[in-house]
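Record filed below.
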Amino acid sequence: MYKCHNCGVGRTLSNFLKDQDSFLHDQYVMEKFKDGRTGKGTVTPNPKFNFSPPNFHRGDVNLEKISDLNTSHPAREYLEKRGIKDLEYFYYCPKFKAWTNEQKKTFDNCRQDSPRIIIPFRDKDGRLFGYQGRSLAPTAKMRYITIMLDEDKPKIFGQDRINDKEPVYIVEGPFDSTFIQNSVAMAGSDVDIRTYNWSNYIWIYDNEPRNREIVNRISRSVDRGDKVVIWPKHIQQKDINDMYLAGHDVQKVVESNVYHKLEANLRLNDWKKV
């Protein structure tokens, strides 16, 4: 428990972490989820596994592609309702925990196993080094679970889908990246993109001017001298997917609102509300 004796505000540890650092909160929930135990009085050990990371290749995902599913299948319906057209890139996994343990021992038990959409992480040569599982259950405690087959790789989706000689757009989520040309997605981690030697890259954060964490991340990008997208005020939707569904030409909006250095700072100060 967290309690401030000055103002009297109290929080569970989970809610405190969620308020302060969403990435750390996700890691905390993942540790509880691994053993299939949640709730008061539960203690989940942090398992240690000794194994060599597998060497995966493009054809090694032994799952059915979303594009091959029946049009009435819940996984396909979910992506199509979101307007996602790259169905051949994603997979359907009927039992996520069991399948994950076949790739890398992760879960101590497979209780309450459930289906998920698999979002593959591949390097520029197409080699699989990790993936995310997106739950189909609206009430799932963890909508996304990230599994890294190679812990040394950064959690970046879409490296095999870009031309790094062209401007590379960096968005917050893999599904959002399917609406922006030549884009990658940060899957829950801040990575030093400069190590990739991309000639030109632009950060696209969610449109949440009241979210202090996002405002701070944009500010840090601007301070590093990076280019950023600052959303115009007539855009009300939070993320790229919602903007697309609302009828916006997101590619055009993005390309028209890229800012750098002083102009980026001025636009950020006008946009933020915290």
Notes: The domain at 52-151 is CATH 3.90.980.10 (DNA primase DNAg catalytic core, N-terminal domain). The chain is about 30% helix and 20% strand. The CA atoms of residues 80 and 87 lie 8 Å apart.
